[in-house]
Design a protein that fits this description.
The protein is an alpha/beta fold. It contains 13 helices and seven strands. It has a seven-stranded mixed β-sheet with strand order 3-2-1-4-5-7-6, with helices on both faces.
């Protein structure tokens, strides 16, 4: 079932993140994770007649939520191509960019997409259903060593090798094509008291690999550093340590690795500087209304 904009996704840290953009009424802004359009609508409500907003999303379902506003342009694309599309639209610089890196509630609740272990569904996990490999392709075609690396790097699973080994043996009997079959195999290695948490990490690792999320994030952030005008704002909401580390490194050092360069006077050479040294987290009220926001962290930086 395709959901409406109102139920597609509950926007996380809505006011805090849009406040962080310090919106100028005539400015140019980008929401690289359009989704249900919640953040985009809030940005548009603060723009004047001459402001403009570009919204990115590679998921065709998100197009049902497109905002009917002359000041809005929807870009059906992965946000890793941010620079290319801004060049296409002849945009030389932007005043602010917002990214909510969380997976939409819609994706977890849509049984057909394979993002959640709550349903027995095809092992897909593609954000863009029109192209690319599926999670089933990864599980059945990667070598045991490649699977182990994916589970360790992107799921931070301590028993990544054992999981990879068990999957490699199981797929020889018959292909692993559904979330239910994957769970049936993997749960043998998870202690019952940690089963849900470990399964979440396993599904996260596969989702990140299928969608090349870390590479896309690096490219988008470095593109944002170039596109932002002086005093332009970058607001990013993260949900797990892997993406948060990359965001923090780029905001502090100007690169995903966090390698700090200093000038002759010992000043850090970076295109950005952090506005909030401590991350902004959801209020108690938001956590009560939307428990899925509990791991959200907002970081805000400004272009030097």
């Amino acid at each position: 079932m395709i959901k409406t904009a109102e139920t597609y996704h509950v926007s996380v840290l809505l006011k805090e993140s849009v406040d962080g953009l310090a919106i100028r009424p005539d400015g140019v802004y980008v929401d690289v994770t359009f989704g249900g359009g919640g953040h985009s609508r809030e940005i548009l409500s603060r723009l004047g007649a001459h402001g403009h907003l570009y919204g990115f999303d590679q998921d065709a379902d998100a197009e049902l939520n497109i905002v009917n506003d002359d000041r809005f342009t929807f870009v059906r694309s992965n946000f890793r191509y941010l620079k290319n599309w801004m060049r296409y639209y002849e945009v030389d610089g932007v005043d602010g960019l917002l990214a909510d890196l969380g997976v939409s509630s819609h994706h977890f609740d849509d049984e057909s997409r394979g993002f959640s272990f709550r349903f027995d569904a095809p092992l897909d996990m593609r954000m863009n259903k029109r192209a690319g490999m599926t999670a089933a392709d990864v599980v059945n075609n990667y070598t045991e060593e490649q699977l182990s690396d994916v589970f360790y790097l992107y799921g931070e699973l301590k028993n990544a090798r054992k999981i990879a080994s068990l999957l490699a043996k199981s797929r020889q009997e018959k292909p692993i094509l559904t979330t239910g079959r994957l769970m049936e195999i993997a749960e043998k290695l998870f202690p019952r008291e940690r089963e849900k948490k470990e399964m979440t990490k396993l599904f996260q690792a596969l989702r990140i690999e299928v969608n090349h999320e870390m590479d896309a994030l690096r490219e988008m952030l470095l593109g944002a550093c170039e596109l932002l005008k002086p005093e332009g704002r970058l607001c990013v909401i993260t949900y797990h340590s892997l993406e948060d580390r990359i965001v923090k490194n780029v905001m502090r050092a100007g690169n995903a690795e966090g390698k700090v360069e200093q000038d002759f006077f010992g000043q850090v050479k970076s295109p950005l500087h952090l506005i909030n040294n401590r991350v902004i987290v959801p209020s108690d009220e938001e956590l009560t209304a939307n428990p899925r926001s509990r791991s959200a962290k907002l970081r805000i930086a400004v272009k030097n």
